[in-house]
Design goal:
Length: about 600
């Protein structure tokens, strides 16, 4: 796969991506990727005002049932052109292609007014702008210092500032205050090199509606976030980016330019479109879609606040792969106690409702999976009436894995201790106050006995005896507990629910008799060790030792602060191998 970026004077560059799905290399092979064989990638809907949003082209190969390798190319239709294609006469069963589009009416638009009007990628920093259209005169304020503004007519104008790429929100706040002292009415900040405002962490890498989640998206080192950022900025402030930002700054330098800025209320309609293909890139990549061909989904957001807002991530699962603009990690801001109408390409969609909060959340992120049909209407409610543990769907968004699975001698378990009223599952957030309940692993046999229990987070030591024989076949069950804010004693414990029971393979030369638990003498010694540990920790004594090779995965490792494609080893406690005494410390986080 290869891509060609073609500059366009005064415009964002165009991108062409070309793939050779299956290339057999021998010797002295020359491959020519002719981008003239590509087709333009676009999508539009029968709602003319929906012109904004983000798009993504993905080309890749399936290496196995759950592993892919791909190249992703993001773009925005308003500012860039994207082309894609396959080398003529080539294809591969392992190759896949996806064109994904998240379309919406732009909440904020900025235009430079010249003989030919041009759009500028823009995002609000701080408080939202008042709804309406305005045409301010422009002024160029350099870096926004007093010496830069001396002799410049900025009164009642939109002042364009050219700032270095490492600008922090604190520095931006100082420069905006200086512009206000000189009579400016509004500020457009252009960070020339990186096109990114920093708040201790990066906020943005992409223009348009995806430039940034502004001052409420991250938890930076400074205190200027959310409402504090809105209070700190003395004037309405926006950030501009890309090639057209340079044109906009040049227009401001003339001293006589004007701009048009349109601010709209919170967007209520959005489109999540996905067009997958396998084998090769389709010849037709321009799509015009009608609402009647899509699934209409009402997204209802319960609770939340301006300081704790949700970010919605949607992944289309098709042809054994995962597609969607959210593949880049960018979420769509949810609403606070409101509803939004969205339209989806028919098929299976996995959702992650990630909470962006200044304070820890007891419930953590919410996950769900839905199958949508064309022409049908659905309603998805999020964060309504939090209940106890729930096992709907699958774990590890958006992968297709059961809540408990076994690989050889390892049992990987994740327990969703929370779910909302609609059954969307969530794991606990370790940073939140209060108890998280417990996770218990049981052994099957003549009588069900406990293998091990995680009763709290933090550092824990397990003292285990030498085992005479390998343990009997284990199984997993959950006794989930959850404490809601305001009470340490009002614990609600859900009933035990059996999870996935992995198969057990008996090695050659052994019978199932050889896999029975160890005798009483070993257990008696283990109980003595466990009793001493329990007395020190003030906990009840466990009555059964964990089996060799077992592994317990604490559910909180799926918190949005620790979301990864695969589990980090520090989240697991690997118990001892047969015939080996051990003292092992494991940090459950």
């Amino acid at each position: 796969m290869g891509s060609l970026i073609t500059p366009r004077p005064g415009l964002e560059p165009s991108i062409a991506a070309m793939a050779h799905p299956e290339l057999n290399l021998t010797r002295d092979t020359t491959v020519t990727l002719d981008t003239r064989q590509t087709a333009k990638v676009t999508a539009n809907v029968d709602q003319p005002e929906v012109t904004g949003g983000s798009s993504l082209v993905e080309m890749g190969v399936c290496l196995s049932a759950d592993q892919t390798q791909s190249v992703v190319l993001p773009f925005e239709q308003r500012f860039q052109e994207m082309f894609a294609g396959t080398q003529p006469g080539t294809s591969s069963a392992a190759f896949y292609f996806g064109a994904s589009h998240r379309l919406e009416q732009p909440r904020l638009e900025l235009f430079g007014e010249q003989q030919k009007r041009f759009p500028v990628p823009v995002v609000v920093v701080g408080a939202p702008l008042p709804v309406g259209s305005r045409t301010p005169a422009l002024a160029f304020g350099g870096a926004g210092r007093s010496q830069d503004l001396a002799g410049v007519e900025v009164r009642d104008r939109l002042v364009v500032l050219e700032l270095p790429s490492g600008t922090t929100l604190e520095t931006l706040t100082e420069r905006v205050a200086t512009v206000r002292e000189h009579g400016g009415a509004m500020v457009a900040a252009w960070l020339r090199t990186a096109d990114v405002v920093h708040q201790g962490t990066e906020l943005t890498r992409q223009p348009g509606s995806r430039i940034a989640a502004a001052a409420t998206a991250a938890k930076p080192s400074s205190e200027l976030t959310g409402a504090k950022a809105a209070e700190a900025l003395a004037l309405p402030t926006v950030q501009i980016a890309g090639t057209n930002a340079e044109r906009f700054a040049a227009l401001a330098r003339t001293g006589g330019g004007t701009a048009t800025m349109i601010a709209r209320p919170e967007i209520r309609d959005a489109y999540e479109l996905s067009f997958p293909a396998t084998g090769r890139v389709p010849a037709q990549l321009e799509h015009s879609v009608r609402k009647s061909e899509l699934a209409a989904v009402t997204m209802a957001f319960h609770g939340y606040s301006a300081e704790s807002t949700p970010q919605m991530h949607a992944i289309h699962r098709a042809a054994g792969v995962r597609l969607g603009v959210s593949r880049l990690g960018y979420g769509t801001p949810g609403l606070v106690r409101a509803e939004r109408q969205e339209y989806y390409t028919p098929g299976t969609w996995a959702f992650l409702n990630a909470l962006v909060s200044q304070t820890p959340s007891v419930g953590g992120d919410l996950r769900g999976e839905e199958l949508f049909a064309a022409g049908k209407s659905y309603r998805l409610a999020w964060n309504g009436a939090v209940t106890g543990p729930g096992f709907r769907g699958k774990r590890n968004y958006p992968a297709d894995r059961p809540w408990a699975a076994r690989t050889t001698q390892e049992i990987d378990i994740s327990i969703p201790l929370f779910s909302d009223g609609a059954g969307h599952t969530a794991t606990a957030d370790l940073d939140a106050p209060g108890d998280r309940g417990s996770t218990v692993l049981y052994r099957r046999g003549g009588a069900r006995r406990t293998l091990g229990t995680v009763v709290h987070q933090g550092l824990r030591r397990m003292d285990l005896p030498q085992r005479a024989r390998p343990g009997a076949e284990p199984s997993a069950a959950a006794a989930g507990g959850a404490v809601h804010p305001g009470g340490g004693s009002g614990q609600h414990r859900a009933g035990r629910r059996h999870l996935h029971r992995p198969g057990h393979r008996v090695p050659a030369g052994r019978s199932r008799r050889d896999h029975r638990p160890a005798g009483r003498s070993v257990l008696r010694r283990w109980r003595q060790l466990a009793a001493r540990e329990g007395e020190r920790a003030g906990r009840p004594v466990q009555r059964r030792a964990p089996a060799p090779g077992d592994r317990i995965c604490v559910p909180a490792c799926e918190s949005h602060r620790c979301r990864r494609e695969h589990h980090d080893p520090k989240h697991h406690s690997r118990l001892p191998a047969p015939l080996t005494p051990v003292q092992e410390s494991a940090r459950f986080r």
